[in-house]
Design goal:
Structural class: alpha/beta
Order of helices and strands: EHEHEHEHEHEHHEHEHEH
Number of helices: 10
CATH superfamily of the largest domain: Aconitase, domain 3
Largest sheet: 5 strands, parallel
Shape: elongated
Mean pLDDT: 89
Oligomer: single chain
Strand content: 15-25%
Number of domains: 2
CATH class of the largest domain: Alpha Beta
Number of strands: 9
Strand order of the largest sheet: 7-6-5-8-9
């Protein structure tokens, strides 16, 4: 435990210019923890913060993309330095920040290599555009014999999909098209028990959030990866 008696300031993204500047401003009488990639190369930043009046500066390895390590990192800092008085998020992800954050969220549900029992496109029921996207993604392909692919839509969209040949294309690939149902309110638990389903893939965050309560192990993926996994019979 840090015995300096100083309050702790944590800078997540301690290599960035804004992170360093904020650390300098918060430095007087503080014990500053800089968390960044290549933490052993923060000598310049450490010197500037000490010169600004910090009682102590320590560094920790931190990768913004590796979200699973964030909780343990903060817990270890608290164990070593005591309660964190001020925490600053001074990092970003290069490229499309929103896309990167979504990818990190999806990765938290990853189960690569697991057998896929059922792929569900539902919650909400699919639009005509989404029905076409599923049909296109399945074109010339066949759902694995050990995997069930279920598409739900409204009766009106189902009628339009029938006329446009989308239903036929999905069913020819081995998918099931159901109209007017809500998957998790349609005896989802009983379906799992009767069919031995555990691993469920979907592109619906709403369904992932709900379906675990029915005994499933859900995985959130894009429509394309759900289809690829349905074809392979395992999470890809």
């Amino acid at each position: 435990m840090d015995d300096t008696g100083a309050h702790t300031v944590l800078i997540l993204g301690g290599r960035s210019e804004i992170g360093t500047e904020l650390a300098v401003r918060l430095a007087p009488d503080a014990s500053v923890v800089l968390a960044a990639r290549n933490a052993d190369r923060l000598g310049e930043q450490t010197a500037a913060i000490l010169a600004a009046g910090a009682v102590a500066v320590s560094t920790r390895e931190f990768d913004a993309d590796d979200v699973e390590t964030h909780g343990p990192l903060v817990a270890s800092i608290i164990a070593e330095h005591g309660p964190i008085h001020t925490a600053v998020l001074a990092f970003g992800i290069l490229g499309d920040q929103g896309r990167a954050e979504i990818d990190a969220f999806v990765a938290a549900y990853g189960a690569t290599g697991d057998k896929v029992d059922v792929v569900v496109f539902a919650a909400p029921q699919l639009s005509l555009v989404e029905m076409a996207a599923v049909a296109d993604a399945l074109s010339g392909r066949e759902v694995h014999s050990d995997t069930t692919l279920l598409v739900t839509t409204s009766p009106e969209i189902k009628h339009a999909a029938d006329r446009m040949g989308l239903t036929r294309r999905i069913e020819e690939a081995g998918g099931i098209v159901a109209a007017g149902i809500c998957f998790y309110q349609s005896y989802a638990g009983e379906l799992a028990e009767a069919n031995g389903w555990k691993r469920l893939l979907t592109n619906s965050a709403k369904l992932v959030n709900i379906i675990g309560g029915y005994g499933y192990r859900p995985t959130l993926m894009s429509l394309e990866r759900c289809i690829d996994s349905a074809i392979a019979g395992r999470v890809v």
